[in-house]
Structures are given as C-alpha cells and as structure tokens.
Amino acid sequence: MALDRLIDVEDLVEKLRSYNSNSDGALIRAAYEYCEVMHRGQFRQSGEPYIVHPVEVAYILAEMRLDDQTIVTALLHDTIEDTRSTFEETGRRFGPEVATLVDGVTKLTNLQLSGTDTEQAENFRKLLLAMSRDARVILVKLADRLHNMRTIKHLNGEKQRQKARETMEVFAPLAGRMGMQWMRDELEDLAFSVLNPEGRVSIMRRFLKLQKETGDVVQKITLDIKAELSRAGVEAEVIGRAKKPYSIWRKMQEKKLSFARLSDIYGFRILVEGKDDCYRALGAMHQRWSAVPGRFKDYISQPKSNGYRSIHTTVSGRAGRRVEIQIRTRQMHDVAESGVAAHWSYRDGVRAGNPFAVDPTKWISDLTERLTSDSYDEFMEDVKLEMYSDKVFCFTPRGDVVKLPLGATPLDFAYAIHTRIGDRCVGAKIDHERVPLWTRIKNGQMVEIITAEGQRPHAEWESIVKTGRAGSAIRRSLREEERERFVRLGRELARVAFDHVGKRATEKALSTAARQLGMRDSLELLDGLGRAKISGNEVVGTLYPKLAPRTGDEIDAARAVVGLATGQNFERAQCCQPVPGERIAGIRYSGKGVFVHAIDCPALREFEDQSNRWVDLHWHSGPHPAVHTVSFDITISNFAGVLGRVCTLIGEQGANISDLRFIDRKPDFYKLIVDVDLSDAEHLHAVVLSIEAESDVASIDRYRDLKRVPRP
C-alpha cells in the first residue's frame, strides 16, 4: 500500500527480513543508495523526489514476499532508462541476473500496449517473450503500474485516461491471468475511478445508504459463518468484505440489473488447514443455507492453469441475501493471492516451496502456445480471449480433463485435443447425446467428437468458437483452402491464355515464367493468376513476347469517351459500370471531374433538376482494350468442377477475371460476385451468353451496387 512518508532503507530491509531472515541487507542497502544517487534531482509530477516511486514499487513486491533480486530490480527499474546508469554498470554492481531483469523492465516500459495500429500486436508479442524469459520482469512492471495508478491524480486529464484505458485493457487482466486477483481488483477499480468517476461515486453512495439501512452486514454474516463452522468442528479463519465498486458495476452491466436487485455484493473467504477441511466447511455451509444453482465451482479438484485452487459457492444467507463464499487452505490462499509470483515467494527464510505454486516457465509456454495468429487483428483477439478467459472443465470419453474458457463449444474442445481433430469435425455428442456444434459446454460434461476424412473447416465456424487456438486454426485452414481454390482457378486461366497462342501450360513453362517474374515457384504464379494480381497475357508474354496479344492499336482507356472539356478527367461510375457501346451520360463533381453513368442508371434520378451538372458524352468508336470491369451476380450448382467450367468459359471469350467472392454458400448452390474485365458491350454480351448456356448455372445478372454511387 502507498505510505504517507518515504520508506527509508531500513524499513525495506526490515520488511524483507520479516519473511526472509536470509535476505542480503547489504545488497538491498547498496541498491537503495545507488537508486537515490541516480535519481537525485529528478521529481515526479506530484513534486515528490523521484526515488519515492521505485521504493514504493519495491515495497509492493516485498509485501508479496518476493526474493532479493526482484526487490533490487524494483529499486533500479528506471535507472537504465532515466539516468546515466548502464546495463554494464548494473551488472558489475548487482550481478548479471539483476541487470537482465532491469533491462527487461526497461524494454517493457517503452512498449506502447494501447492503441489501434499493428505495432500493438508486435509489442504484445514482445511482452510475452519477456514473460517467457523471466516472469519477474512482468511482476515488477505490474507493481510499477499499480503505484502509478495509485498516484495518477497528478497527471493531466488526457494522460490519466490513456493510462487508465491501458490498465483496464492490458495490465489488470494480465494480473488476473497470473493469479493475482487482489492486484487485478485494485487496478480495475483505480482505472474505473478515472474512466467513470460518476459511476464509481454512485456505487459508493449506494453502499453507504445500504449500510445505514442494514448495519454492518459483513460482520453479521462473518459471525454466522463462524458459528456454523464451529458447530461442524472445523477450525477456520473467516474473512469478509464488500466487493470493489468496479466489480459491482461490471455485474450490473453484465446482468442488466439495478444496484437494488444485485444481491451478491459481499464476498467471504474461509481459510482452513487441510484439503479435507475444505469439503467439511462446504458441507456446513450447504447444510445451513440453500446453495444457489449454477454458482458452484470446484477449483480444488480441477485447478486453474495458474495454480489457483479454491471452492466457490453462493448461498442464500441472512435475510435471503446472496453470499459468495470461497473455501481454501492457507497454502492455496497464498497462491490465490500471489498467483505465479508464489514460485519466488519466501517464508521463514527459505523459498516457500508451496506445492500448489505453478512453474512459471510451463504456465507461460502453455499461454504463448495458443497465441499463434499471424495477423494483427487475429493476434489481439486471441490475446484478449486468453486474458479474460474463465474456465470450464469437461472430459474426453476416456476421462481426460480438458480446460476451456467459459462459453466454449465442441469445436473448441476438438481443437484443444488436436488441430487435425478440429479440422475433420462433422459433429459432436455431449453426455452421449448428439448436439449442434454451437452448443455451449458446461462444467463436468463429457464431450465426444465425430470426425470424417475429407472434412474441412467452414467459414461460419469462426463465429462459433471461443478459444484463440481454435480461431487461429480455422483461419489458417481457410487461408490454405482459399489458396488451393485460387491455384485451381489460376491453372484454368493459364491453360486458356496458353491455348490462345497455341502453346501448353506445362509445369516447366509455368516454373520458368514464375522465375522470370521473380516468384518462388509455379504455385505462387498460379495463385497470383487466380487472384488477378497478374494476367494470363503477362505470363504468356514473359515466355513468348512475339505471340502475346497486341494492344497497341486499341483506344487509350484514358481517352475512351468523347465530349469532355480540355483537361477534364472522367471516371466510370461503379454503381452501374458502363462499357463502350452502351449509352452514357456524365455528371460533374466538384474537384473530382466527371463520372460516367449508364443512361439507365437509377442514380441519375437525383440529378434530374441539376441540368448544369450534366455532360453529353459518348464512347470513342473503334476497338477498346479489355480493361472495363463489370460485376456479375452468378448462382451455380454446388458440384465439383462447375466453378472451373465457368472460369474457363470466361477465359475462352478472351476476358480476364479480376476478382471473385462468394456471398452465399448452401449445400446445393453457391452465389458469387465475379468481376470480369471486358472491352465493350459486344464482349459483355458474348460472356453472358456463354455462361447462360452452361447447364449448371442457375442465373447470371449484371450486379448493380447503388451503395457505390459517387458522392459530392
């Protein structure tokens, strides 16, 4: 906690020796003195000497009973960044371990963990990398943020809000994920007081009003619980408290309840000696008060990944008021308070050796393994899912336990077992009954996955899954499937382009062309063809420049229309996409030139009373290049080879597909938008006619998108 006076070095040494009699007092004094010298003349926004901050950070970590190296790191954590101190000097004075830790904290301080650009994802990766090297770096950073939040009132308003948002989005959930729930609660509440001061004051006022009406409820319920435990012969310590304002506010928002209707605003902990006592205490509570259905969790038999163990139950206590109770042993409580930090905690002069403390290396490896997304958006989504996850525990048919976030589905379960199982999933059973894949798994259920060879993930699965691991695997598979589709399309386009010049698109020809175009291999070339990044004519021209179609005699697309004033630019309106040979009209736009519309375009109606903006235009006569993109709305049967035949038909008409996107997929048909580059109306008619003649094409229409009407 923040103190009213500067903690002197002897206060800190005494605090360390209260739990570690073997603490190196000389090392702590040397670090304290070095910190004081390095920061001399520096002041915080509050006007206090800067040394107040690192000493307070060190004291926060001392309250967590951490080792000497972590405390020294806390004292020195700003010296390399803000003073003339160096990594080398820190290593000489305090050893390589401390120097490495201080350097790690310095690098974290420079990371921008809030924001909207792609650097945020890379910085999160760096944060996770720092954690993987030594989690004490994160512990110092969290303590640093906690003290800064305790003194945030000295910053200007915008800086306060920026730091509070970053705390709420990153540091508070990270503290929770590391098992330090007390720190998460305090960080959230401090950030809440900045981001929504009116909401926090409102909660506090209602609390005071409630206390006046009911008296000290916490004290009364604590005595009730002690009495029941005494009757059951269970020796225990009972700790009661009202929940933090932000915790109450979040419950009100999540459950859409008013404060008056929110019942479980008090929390109680029962600390006992042994594991058996936990269940005896639970029995005493349930025998005396009615348990609230759906509010029981046993994290002793199924611990969280960060080592957390406790029994949670909610009962209808005094006057029908809901009471949330946590039951755990004292060793479990140490881990619940310190989380991953318990690995370094000391008690009575030695490392605590708590059997429930997790190995930080294994915990961090498990966390980072699930964050494998390549793109910024996907990575950030995965990070937040992992940060905020609450767990459910389910079973495989063999009885193995699988931990998943609250709200997880059988697809999450399948991908948690193995990516191959997830990719091939066609159905699921929960407790031996067939269920839809979007079913939410509940605690204790047995899940069985049904697979089939040849099955591939569907795009809609992304909206079903909850875990970052499943989402990443699905997106990766969809990207691979998309690439295969574009490669198939590119192969057809290459065949047509080579046929036009009397050549064959052999693997050797494609590989040679790819090398000439600076591509890795023929697959990259075909993928580029399918995505319209390059054209078939370009590929042919690379190998057979004299055989490639000539376009020199064609009308320049930049001068395709007649009727413009000198120096006036034009652009085809994308709402109607007119092509040479169709009747057209132009509309002037200030600063944008003239947009060319088809004469029957519905968008022209809004200009009927603005005759001064109309321009009389017509197309140049003569051959036009096939650069005028037209979008087609096509519905085809969902049979193998149909899409390939459609693409072949378009290629046979000398047209290039510049884009292709599915807008609806059903078991019996596909609906898609195909963008085709055409030369003129005759070319357009030939393409439409050839596709209409295909028996597996249900319909083809010109796609008009009035959302793309140009605006002034």
Mean pLDDT level:
82
Unreliable spans are: none
Give the C-alpha Rg: 34 Å
Compute the number of helices.
Answer: 26
| Percent helix | 40-55%
Distance between the termini: 60 Å
Total number of strands: 23
What about the largest sheet?
A: 6 strands, mixed
Structural class category: alpha+beta
Shape: elongated
Binned strand content: 15-25%
Short descriptors:
712 residues; alpha+beta; 6-stranded mixed beta sheet; 26 helices; 45% helix
Describe this structure in words.
- The chain is an alpha+beta fold.
- It contains 26 helices and 23 strands.
- Strands 1, 2, 3, 4, 5 and 6 form a six-stranded mixed sheet that branches. It has a four-stranded mixed sheet with strand order 15-17-16-18, with no helix packed on it. A four-stranded antiparallel sheet has the order 21-22-20-23.
- A hairpin with a 2-residue loop joins β11 (425-430) and β12 (433-435).
- The radius of gyration is 34 Å and the shape is elongated.
- The two termini are 60 Å apart.
